[in-house]
Amino acid sequence: MEIMTDHGFRKTVKYLRAFIIISLIGMICMLVLFLGILAYAKILGAPPLAVPQSTLFYADDGTLIGESNSGQKRYWVGLKDISPDLVNATVSIEDKSFYSHHGFDLKRIAGAVLADIQAFAKVQGASTITQQYARNLFLEHDKTWNRKLHEAFYTIRLEMNYSKNDILEGYLNTIYYGNGAYGVEAASQYYFGKKAADLTLAEASMLAGIPKGPGLYSPLASMENAKRRQAIILATMVKNGYIQTDTAKTVAAEKLTITGSHTAQRVKVAPYFQDAVKNALKNQLHLDDRTIALGGLKVFTTLDLNQQEAAERQVQQYVSNSSEIQVGLVAMDPKNGYLKAMVGGRDYEKSPFNRAVQAIRQPGSTIKPLLYYAALEQGFTPSSTMRSEYTTFHFDDGQADYTPHNFNNKYADGEITMAQALAVSDNIFAVKTHLFLGEETLIETAKRFGLSTKMAQVPSLALGTSGVRVIEMANAYSLLANGGKRVNPTLITRVEDYNGHVIFEKKQEAKKVLDPAKAFVLTQMLTGIFDKKLNGYAKVTGSTIINDLTRPYAGKSGSTETDSWMIGYSPQLVTAVWAGYDIGKPIELTAEKTYAKNIWAGFMEEALEGKPVKSFTTPKEGVIGVYVDPANGKLATKDCPVRRFTYFVAGTEPTEYCTDHLKNENPDAKKEKVNKKVPWYKKIMPWS
User: Fold this and answer.
1) What CA–CA distance (Å, rounded) separates 187 from 183?
2) Where are the alpha helices (DSSP H) in 425-505?
3) Which residues form the Glycosyl transferase family domain (predicted)?
């Protein structure tokens, strides 16, 4: 045996010492690097956990009405809202040491490396739930070293900043289960038609097996493979102490019913309303398109499903399938502005253009209540009279002559009251009032009522020749229905982010903009279109639907050559309906001219069915009611054939009694009782 020389021994010791030093330096560098990574991860803090999720829309009763997504169904749910069986099955098959490791299972990694070496191939995975979650959140699913290093870093950040339950919740909400379902809630809804919280052990154990290979282990792809995978999962649950062997055998033999469809795909409610909601999220709440589509928001709306169905049903019932007429309808609660129903057209698939909020159409005579409110402010009363006859208006400023016409060219050819003019929609009375008040008055009044469209300062404005939106007209009439308070049209009551944090909540706001007494007086005048007692030289404009109505309503119809309107309200509901052709084609068929009124009447009756029958609340002060003869607006006597109880702003009620129907009196005596005083407006408007 050769004896090592001193020189050789010293050389060996030298190399050994160098190796130890280099190893220590390397270990120190590795330790410094590791500590540096930990420090950097700590400095960066908690990584955001937001992932693309479906935004969900709910009706006012909490019913899901739709969702916004890009083909990926994602619904975030808390760990408490996931079946414990699914949680246990997932942990058991994916990462049994999840609760004890710090993001990496070193024993599992060593076992996987050994198995791969023995098989000379990649045969066993070693990723923990935290690693998989990091990959799902932040990385692509490639197999490069760069991706693996990033995955490890994100894993460290997750473990440093979140609890095990937070990580497990996130993982269960992000893994892919096939068929566009991301996360346990979407998968549970798709495969079993139920919430993740309601899954049975049999369903949970099958669902837990799908992520390994959705194309292979989905029960829709292969029930045989799915059952085989389920058996493996049940065996691991037995081994890890989650269930007993007998339970596993029973569950494995259980036959399951697979749904195979996304719940939200069956939900296609109020598409025009949902579009309006998305537009409000963008323009009123200032959310970007991506957040609206994939932010996992929960949007709680004002939609009343029963009223929405009633609106769609009435449109379908009255509008002929062969007609090209379109319809816009808005129904809202006048107390708070909540939109309860919306129809933007007859077929969303053919035309998503929303005529309820986007179209600008001439309102016709539905603008007159706004004009007559302004008149009440200037001292007019329901009994104010003007002469209704064929009239041509001449102007001194070079403006062309203007000759408005009544419907069917019918005129009273005598004095009529403002209440009667409104009930029969007399155009001569309206234009005279408009010109007397000043053409700018109606424009300013329309702004106070919330109309935003530009209006032309012309005589014909009194007859609704400047375009408006259906939704704004419904809102304008709500001021009359609620006693003069402005409430903005509201579609959204609350918005939550994917974590359930409230990012928007509607505050109740109602600003007084009208005098309650005058608003009530005008409302009472608007009930006249449904009052047969007000028939005079022409029928009241609501005569064709009077027999269909079972409760007090106020309202006004309107028509132009190309537009047909009906707007009216009860104390609980305001509804505006427009019907017409998109291209502005004249409405010529008699049946088409009745669509708006019939739809309005049918909808109001159906929407309010079962609700208390309410009359309009009389203000505690500022109004007084008296019986008048509707033909002349004077105080009615017992001899008047028609007596109508009429409200006036206190102090403006008539003081003169009607003498047109006195009995047993000679004509000369009767004439002496007639007030010879020239009305105040005749001094200003001799052409009246």
Assistant:
1) 6
2) 427-437, 439-448, 470-481
3) 62-237
What is the pLDDT, as a whole number, of residue 74?
Answer: 74
Tokens of 7: 């020189």
**485: buried, middle or exposed (CB in 10 Å: 19+, 13-18, 0-12)?**
buried
365 is catalytic: yes
Query: How does residue 677 score in pLDDT terms, banded at 50, 70 and 90?
Result: very low
* List of residues 6+ apart from 306 with CB closer than 8 A: 607
Closest CA to 176 of 84, 88, 74: 74
Structure confidence by residue, pLDDT tens digits, 342-384: 999 999 989 999 999 999 999 999 999 999 999 999 999 999 9
Residue in the block written with tokens 């998968």: 187
For residue 281, what are the contacts with CB-CB under 8 A and spacing of at least 6? 287, 292, 297, 299, 492, 495
The CA distance from 129 to 207, in Å, is 16
CB 577 within 8 A of CB 477: no
pLDDT band at 141 (very low <50, low <70, confident <90, very high): very low
Residues 6+ apart with CB under 8 A from 91: 98, 99, 129, 168
Eight-state DSSP code of residue 663: -
For 678, the token pair is 């020239």
The owner of tokens 């899901």 is 64
Alpha helices in 391-438 (DSSP H): 418-424, 427-437
Stretch among 130-139, 220-229, 571-580 having the lowest mean pLDDT: 130-139
Strands ordered across the beta sheet of 326-332 = 339-343, 326-332, 574-580, 563-569, 554-559
Exposed, middle or buried, 197 (CB in 10 Å: 0-12/13-18/19+)?
Answer: middle
pTM for the whole structure:
0.75
Which of the following is catalytic: 54, 127, 218, 365?
Answer: 365
The amino acid at 644? R
Q: What's the chain's Rg over C-alpha atoms?
A: 38
Measured CA distances, 346 to 66, 274, 355, 581 (Å): 19, 15, 10, 12
Segments of 323-374 assigned E as strands: 326-332, 339-343
Q: Label residue 383 exposed, middle or buried (CB < 10 Å: 0-12, 13-18, 19+).
A: buried
DSSP 597-615: HHHHHHHHHHHTTTSPP-P
What average pLDDT score do residues 282-304 get? 88
Which positions ≥6 away from 117 have C-beta within 8 Å?
A: none
Please state, in angstroms and rounded to a whole number, the distance separating the CA atoms of residues 589 and 27.
Answer: 92
Cβ-based burial of 119 (10 A; exposed 0-12, middle 13-18, buried ≥19) = exposed
First to last CA, the chain: 141
Phi, psi of 215 (to 5 degrees): -75, -15
Q: Rounded distance, CA 406 to CA 391, Å? A: 10
Residue 223 in contact with residue 241, Cβ under 8 Å? no
- Residue from 94, 151, 185, 472 carrying the catalytic annotation: 94
> Kind of pairing, strands 73-74 and 181-182?
parallel
What's at 29, amino acid-wise? C
